[in-house]
Amino acid sequence: MFQLLQPIWLWLTTGILVPVMIHLWNIRRGKTLRVGSIALLKAGGHRQSRRLRLTEPLRLLLRCLLIILAAVLLSRPVWQQRPRQKEKGWVLLPGERWQETYQHFQLSIDSLLQAGYALHYFNPGFRAAGLTATFYGNMEMDSTMSYWALLDSLQQMPGAPRSFFIFTPAWLHRFRGQRPAIDTGVHWYAYTPADSVATWPGNAYATPSGSIYAGRVSSRPGGNSYAWEILPFGAAPQPVDTTTMRITLFADALMQDALYLKAAITAIQQFTQHRLALQEVHQTTALPAQTDWLFWLSTQPLPRDVQARNTWRYDTGQVVNSASWIISGTAAPVPLYKRVQPPLTAAEAVPLWQDGFGNPILRQEKGPQTTQYHFASRLDPAWNELPWQADFPAMLLQLLFPDSNNVITGKDRRIIAAQQLQPDHTAGNMITRSRTAAITTDLSPFCWALLLLLFLIERLWAFRVKKLPADG
Questions:
Q1: What is the spatial distance between Cα 95 and Cα 129, in angstroms, rounded to a whole number?
Q2: For the purposes of burial, counting CB atoms within 10 Å of the CB of 13, is it exposed (0-12), middle (13-18) or buried (19 or more)?
Q3: 147-199 confidence digits (pLDDT tens)
């Protein structure tokens, strides 16, 4: 279908009035006729020689076409054509677990194929597949890409049909990232695979008593569980961390903040049995040369000669009241009363905790030798409720030992809730989007070529026309 993206330029077609007027007012000189007597001249001959006549109509047509074509060219002409859909829709199965998925939904898939649906892989590229390959094992394909990312690219794929039936395992680790909008043309069916339970050794570390605190992780469709046991030294089946984490607390005027933090770290040590060496100092001259964690509970500048693998610092700047929450993602929201307006350079850091308005409260800034954590509040009940929260030690635990609760992606057996796979609704109406995007072809090159051709024809015509002498 022919379309103009900027049709306002069609007003230029009124310019064809100029060549029309020129041709209408072009009075041709009369011919000199030799006659034997002036009696043969009639009065009407003079009127006929001055009559307006349309001369060279073909040349006039060329000039009008040039103006019209120039107006169309400025209007950005395009040709849009929707691809023909030979298929009723697609049935998509993951190539890495093709056989198991097909056998689980065999009746539904066979009925869809008989109804005119085409079989495709639910993998990057979404290439066509055939049932003859299903019983020869699973295909070697990417089994790590997020299903959400695949669905988003599928719904934006030009030439794709309007209806999809997707059959996949329900593993939660495949639904990573932001959930895209799911329209009513997507029908998603997920199942719990046969290998729905996985168990593997977790972290293991030496305790102050000399024993080994070894963890074991179990993953099931309903969630993950962690079990710990105390083993004799050397009896753990996994590598054992025998290091001691050195933690330094510095506080000058904010002594009460250090007491709250010290109580939380002590609770972590008693619960996890990790080897922790906690040191509290109040003078910069007493700071150790090296430490694993430095909690700088002060508004003074951090000394340049301090070497710490991780540093917690208070932000300094404008203090604003904030009736909001501290949201960490791992604990319940904590009431927030005051915060410090972060500097403009804070956008370069990664926010770990945020308030209810999306402002960073704790942000991480990784460097070549140290990682800094900037806290835009205080460990003070007048600023927030962190000192009184039972989840505060758990929030600190995620910072001190970020790998303590990590789950191996290939062994995660948690499944997604069925409600997450349903189409989106807005004000009671389902969202519908067209996936069959029109194929747009720019016609500007063709218009330029035609314009140049007409201009050359008009110029050649002008040079080839022989003009009559002025006196006949």
A1: 9
A2: middle
A3: 999 999 888 887 788 889 999 999 888 898 888 888 888 999 999 988 888 88
Gap between the Cα atoms of 109 and 89, Å rounded: 12
Note whether 340 and 317 are within 8 A (CB). yes
Q: Which of 98-107, 174-183, 343-352, 450-459 has the highest mean pLDDT?
A: 98-107
> DSSP letters along 28-68, please?
PPPPP---S-GGG--HHHHHHHTS-----HHHHHHHHHHHH
Contacts of 4 (CB under 8 A, 6+ apart): 10, 72, 75, 76, 77, 78
One DSSP character per residue, 423-457 reads PPEETTEE-----SPPEEEE-HHHHHHHHHHHHHH
Mean pLDDT of 452-460: 82
Within 10 Å of residue 169's Cβ, how many Cβ atoms?
23
> What pLDDT is stored for residue 384 in this prediction?
95
Length of the chain: 472
* Measured CA distances, 117 to 96, 171, 182, 281, 466 (Å): 21, 26, 20, 71, 69
Taken in order of first residue, the domains within the chain and their CATH numbers are 2-81+442-464 (no CATH), 90-195+415-430 (no CATH), 198-240 (no CATH), 245-410 (3.40.50)
Q: Tell me the range of 49-53, 288-292, 458-462 where mean pLDDT is highest.
A: 288-292
Give residue 421's Cα distance to chain centre.
19
CA distance 202 to 405: 8
Q: What pLDDT does 263 receive? A: 94
